[in-house]
Every structure is written in structure tokens, then in C-alpha cells.
Amino acid sequence: MITRRHFTNLSAAALVVAALPARAGTPMHVLASPGCGCCHAWADLARARGYAVTVAELTDPEAQKSERGIPLELASCHTIEADGYVFEGHVPFEALEAVLQDRPDVTGLAVPGMPMGSPGMGDDPSARYDVIAFGGEAGTGTVYYRAGTAQPFDT
Length: 155
Hints:
Blueprint: H1 4-19, E1 27-32, H2 37-48, E2 52-57, H3 61-67, E3 78-82, E4 85-89, H4 93-102, E5 108-111, E6 129-134, E7 142-147
Parallel strand pairs: 1-2, 4-5
Antiparallel strand pairs: 1-3, 3-4, 5-6, 6-7
């Protein structure tokens, strides 16, 4: 029998679970370039944010990125798979988490190259670089997020 007290406790627990960020325990698989320290630095930052991260090495980067729908001009040193999306390179967590929460019709996000100050590359919140959405409604690529700006989602 559920008493008022049990109902109140269950309701409070449900609210806490609903308020957890998208990342809490979300499995994330990182395909890292062999010997690349910044790939592992990004994975460590993801773990610190609560993601369940596994890491494997890229064995054929061009083929593995193409298989995942990543335009080669958007390539970086590592590829992340999480909750049905692909994230290429040093994607800032604010942008990644917005995709996981909002579920837009895109294949994923990419930060081409290895911009200094991006997560895993110095972690400077004032570093300026664009995060590109690709696939689905984004086509071959559109700016999704402008890192280092006051209004990063205003593109």
C-alpha cells in the first residue's frame, strides 16, 4: 500500500532523476588517434562530467569517419559516438549536451582540426572557434555553436 509519505518520497525522487543532466551515465565511445594525448584529455574531461567513457584507437581514420557520416573536411583527431550522435574532435560539452538534450535532426557536431583552448587542447573558455553541425537538416555543415562568444548558440 502506498501511503502519502511513500508517494511524496517517490515524487521527489522522480524530480531529482528528471533534473539530472543528459550526461549522467550516458555511454560514450571515443575513437582516438594512436598516441594522441589530447584525445585522451578530452575523454578524461568527459568522464569528469559523468559520462561512461570507453576509448579505442582509430585503425583506419578516413574509413571509420566516412562510415559515420563525417565529412572529411570536418575531420579532427578523435571521433565520439554517444546516444545515436557522432561528435568529431574537440567539441565543447555545452554544445554536445544541447544536442543530446534537444535531439536535433543532425548526424552530429564537429570541431575541425585541433583549436587551441578547446576541451582537451587547453580548456580555455574564451577560445574562439566554430562548432559545425552536419548531416540531416544541417546538410554538409552549418555553424551550430560559436565557442568563446557571449551568445554561442546565436549563429
